[in-house]
Design goal:
InterPro entries: TPR-like_helical_dom_sf, TPR_2, TPR_rpt. The protein is mainly α. The chain contains 7 helices and no strands. The N and C termini lie far apart (70 Å).
Length: 144
């Protein structure tokens, strides 16, 4: 009804997020910000979608833009904390994987998936690591 209203896109983005449709939510949130470059709530939705999809760096970039508009906004700081936590988890996954420690990698993947609830790649990676662990357990059982 009103294709130039940023709030409408933002509201639909929120609905998509509640339905777990993070790509659709991200598209609408980006449109809200495109329509109104001062719409902090739109930036927050973009960041939340990026975090849910596992892209913490994109979330931090958008949050920096939002922070320029409202430097004292607690919601922006909270989302920055979430994005940074996701980055730390992903870094720990990389370290553990480099050592072949899939059990620890899965632990950190689970922590990452608490933030990145819609990230298909992390879910696939976790499944692969679970297979690695099962194969290792099977191999050890054969040795006994």
């Amino acid at each position: 009804l009103c294709p130039d209203c940023a709030a409408y896109y933002s509201n639909r983005s929120a609905c998509y997020m509640m339905l777990g449709k993070y790509h659709d939510a991200l598209n609408d949130a980006r449109e809200a910000v495109r329509l109104d470059t001062n719409f902090v709530k739109g930036y927050l939705r973009v960041a939340k979608c990026n975090i849910a999809l596992g892209d913490a760096n994109a979330a931090l970039s958008v949050l920096r833009q939002a922070s320029e508009l409202e430097p004292n906004n607690r919601s922006i700081r909270d989302e920055m904390t979430n994005a940074q936590a996701l980055l730390r988890c992903l870094d720990e996954v990389t370290k553990a994987t480099g050592k072949g420690d899939y059990r620890t990698a899965i632990f950190h993947l689970d922590r990452a998936l608490e933030q990145a609830v819609g990230c298909r790649n992390l879910k696939i990676t976790k499944a692969e690591y679970l297979v690695f662990l099962q194969r290792f357990a099977d191999a050890q059982e054969m040795v006994k």
